[in-house]
Each structure stands twice: as C-alpha cells, then as structure tokens.
UniProtKB/TrEMBL annotation:
Lineage of source species: Bacteria, Bacillati, Bacillota, Bacilli, Bacillales
Organism in which the protein naturally occurs: Alicyclobacillus macrosporangiidus
Highest taxon of the lineage: Bacteria
Official protein name in the record: Uncharacterized protein
Amino acid sequence: MEGNIANLYRECWEKNVGSVPPELSDLERWIRVAKLWSAVEFLANARRNPESYSEQTMAHLVRELPGYVDGVSMV
C-alpha cells in the first residue's frame, strides 16, 4: 500500500512541478517509517491509559508489528 501511495504522490509531483526531487526516491520507506512511529505512539498511549483501548486492537498491533518492522528495514 505504501508503494502505491508513494507512486501516486510522485505522479502528482511530476504533473504539477515537472520533476521529482531526489529525496522522494525513498518516499515509500519514509511512509512506512511514519506509520510505524504512529503505531509505537499508539501503543505507548495505550500503556498509559489501557482502559481507553480495545484489547483486541492492542493484541493485533503487538502481533503484526514485528513483521511490519521487518518490512521497513527491507524497503
């Protein structure tokens, strides 16, 4: 999904500005890193205030996060 988002952003940039700046070459990875950071912040907030967060959501994140981290390092 992040690759599709990055490609759409690059296409839009090319149409409106004309050339894609070099820093966008790693855009997919940075989108994944931002999502990972959001998940970590979510877990930290849930740790501080567990009654406000679904146990199912927490279990899902904890289960899926290691695979997502591996995906970030491979991109």
